[in-house]
Design brief:
Distance between the termini: 39 Å
Number of strands: 8
Number of helices: 0
Structural class: mainly beta
Helix content: under 10%
CATH class: Mainly Beta
Number of domains: 1
Strand content: over 45%
Order of helices and strands: EEEEEEEE
CATH architecture: Sandwich
Largest sheet: 5 strands, antiparallel
Length: 122
C-alpha cells in the first residue's frame, strides 16, 4: 500500500543530441513533483543506464546537478542532464532517495524510459 504522504512523481523526457566521440549522446529533462502531503528533500540519486548490448552502468551520488532540492507539497523541481551510450538504442531507470519533513526516508522510482536515435526503432 502506498502512503500518500510520501508521493513523489517523476517524469523523464529524453532527446537525442547527436554523436560524440563514437558514442550516442542523449539529454533528458526531469520533472520531480511532490504529490504528497509532506515536504520532502531529494538526498541521493541512482541511475541504471543500459545500452542496446545489455551493458549497464550505474550512476549514483548526492542530489542532482549539484542540488538537493526541498519540495513542498505541490511543487515541481525541473532539471536537465545527459547520458552517453555506445549503441543507437538504450534505456534508463532509477530512483531518488528522499527524506520527508517527519524524518521518514523513502525511494521515489524513476520509470524506465528509452534512449533512441530517431529512426532506430522502426
Amino acid at each position: 500500500m502506498i502512503d500518500l504522504r510520501y508521493n513523489i512523481e517523476v517524469i523523464a523526457t529524453p532527446s537525442y543530441q547527436g554523436e560524440r566521440d563514437g558514442r550516442y549522446a542523449f539529454a533528458y529533462d526531469i520533472q520531480i513533483h511532490n504529490a504528497g502531503s509532506l515536504c520532502a528533500q531529494l538526498l541521493n540519486r541512482q541511475w541504471l543506464i543500459t545500452d542496446g548490448d545489455g551493458n549497464t552502468e550505474t550512476v549514483q551520488g548526492p542530489g542532482v546537478i549539484g542540488e538537493q532540492p526541498m519540495l513542498v507539497p505541490g511543487d515541481t523541481f525541473r532539471y536537465q542532464s545527459g547520458a552517453l551510450i555506445k549503441t543507437r538504442v538504450g534505456s534508463m531507470r532509477g530512483q531518488y532517495e528522499m527524506e520527508a519533513e517527519d524524518g521518514h526516508r523513502f525511494m521515489a522510482p524513476i520509470r524506465a524510459f528509452t534512449l533512441a536515435v530517431p529512426g532506430a526503432l522502426n
